[in-house]
Design goal:
This protein is of the alpha+beta class. The protein has 5 helices and 11 strands; from the N terminus they run E-E-E-E-H-E-E-E-H-E-E-E-E-H-H-H. It has one domain. Strand 2 and strand 3 form a beta hairpin.
Length: 210
């Protein structure tokens, strides 16, 4: 099951000498924060997939509008680079302005009317990190640590989709309320490198049977 994550991030339009928007620069993922899905991506999570799938400095990752991979006209172009820095997965890409959608997305970027990016991935390695009590009495919540991911595509997304995407996916796929976390199962964690993904897939199978 392919998963997606969306973040609010400044996406900067790249323009040519005529001032026309032809590409973008932004972050498809960020490191170190616990998102609304209860996950934290660690630096290095994309190292292997970039080296194996996109060895030319991250060039060649498909860029879509809002993950709509079924529609060939929603393919906006390819990345020209993708690197991990201290903040997250920084990507640059070209937009095919030869299509009506590509031209419109380029316009939206130039006018700062879209401000989110997302990426589609599989979990290759992850583990649950339990909550802990701090010295000042506060509680640091538990989270699922994403340690190695297989990256398939990055997307430019409409404004306002971040919270809706994460919260609705958490409720629909895992059967949890927004403030709930998946139960930690020591047996599952010991035998499955991605128990959260397994639980989600199981939940989806149940939903499809109803």
């Amino acid at each position: 099951m392919m998963l997606t994550k969306t973040i609010r991030t400044p996406v900067t339009a790249r323009t040519n000498e005529e001032g026309e928007s032809t590409g973008f620069t932004g972050y498809a993922a960020v490191f170190g924060n616990i998102d609304l899905g209860g996950d934290k991506i660690v630096k290095g999570a994309f190292t292997q997939t970039l080296a194996s799938r996109y060895p030319d400095h991250g060039a060649g990752i498909p860029v879509y509008w809002n993950h709509d991979t079924d529609d060939p006209f929603k393919n906006l172009g390819l990345t020209t680079s993708a690197i991990e820095d201290e903040h997250g997965l920084k990507v640059e890409g070209d937009i095919d302005t030869g299509t009506a959608l590509g031209k419109q997305v380029a316009k939206l970027l130039k006018e700062n009317r879209v401000s989110q990016m997302s990426f589609a991935f599989d979990i290759e390695d992850g583990a649950w990190v339990d909550s802990r009590k701090n010295d000042d009495g506060t509680i640091s919540p538990g989270y699922y640590e994403l340690r190695r991911l297989d990256l398939y595509e990055v997307s430019i997304c409409p404004i306002g989709m971040n919270q809706a995407t994460e919260v609705s996916a958490k409720k629909a796929v895992l059967g949890l309320d927004p403030d709930q976390q998946p139960e930690h199962d020591e047996k599952t964690a010991a035998t499955d490198p991605a128990p959260r993904k397994t639980d989600a897939a199981r939940r989806l199978r149940l939903l499809n049977l109803q």
